[in-house]
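Schema walkthrough. Field components (list of strings):
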Amino acid sequence: MDQYANPTAQAVDNVLIYIFGFSLLLLLGITVVTIIFVVKYRRSKYPEPTSDNDGNIWLETIWTVLPVMIVMTMFWYGWTNYVGLREVPAGALEIKATARMWSWQFEYPDGRKTSKLYVPVNTPIKVSLHSVDVLHNFFVPAFRIKRDTVPGMENYVWFQAPEEGSYDIFCAEYCGVGHADMITTVEAMSQEAYADWSKPLEPSGDPRGLIVLNEQGCTGCHSLDGSDNIGPSLFELAGQTRKLIRDGQPVEVAIDENYLKIAIREPELEVVAGYDPIMPPYDEGTISAEDLQAVVDYLLGKVVAATTAPDADQLLEENGCLGCHSSDGSEGIAPTFKGIGQRDVTIERDGKELTIKVDAEYLRRALLEPEADMVKGYAPMMPAADYLSPEQIDVIIEHLLKQ
Ligand code: CUA
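Field assembly_structure (string):
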């Protein structure tokens, strides 16, 4: 099937055309023969039966064997093409799809998550299907793929996008009031654009200096926590002094930028008393000037670990919140996020109606125990967002209060 640009669609279309073609042929043939016989053997022309034949073994054999063969070819053709839909080509890119009421989330091998399915063209894509709540169904009409996503069950589909563009994804299994909103797209990009898109993100929120220390293996000999090792610890160097042996004489120097740079570029010049002169020099080719500065700044405490605050908009999108809550004020299944930080809500608590101001405490409860304080007029169908980290919840609350 590899010769086709859109192999899964081709497999399904071939079988459809084959079966539909035969059916059409038989329908036409039978109808034509019926009409001819009705006209030819009409009662006004032949008032009495003209034949009392008991049977014809050849005719009966043919009309039994021929349809059996036709049906068997339909089965064979359908089966082999179905097998093609289930056999994922080697080297397929695997993406995990998670369905929840009422959104899709896609997770890529490097851990990034999106609400649209981004893929390169002309590359087999295997989508593993997962559901966190109820039965959904992953349906992409353009690729003729449709498969249930079942909580607790592994399932998959594969496809290959023939050209760049957007292809609709639907949920094809009724899964509650938001079912019709479980719409997103496959975004097929050129191979180059995809390579660009999937460039590795900065792997961690660590400051550059620390990353270099780890990459270069510095921490193998120098501890970062004050403990002693093969080399002196790098713990809180700012303001400290070092006893060195310089030209055979013991001297005490302050640890500053200059000292550290020499200690990295030409370590044999400034060996700390009590340690062996075994550290290799790190030249420009190994640690660039820029990285050296980053290391020095880090060691002198000039950079604190950057807090990689997760982006609230991204969190809302990738966790599917926007599937039910609009951000533009339009009415959805659930209250809009627009202006949510500035309004009062009427909720039902313990069976009583209560109007309260939206604040951080309210939003936290709405996220973690949505059933507890249902906004009047909405059905209690939001799942508890306990899959978010406390930090992510804080970011979302802060963001919503500013809406
Ligand atoms: Cu999910 Cu319908």
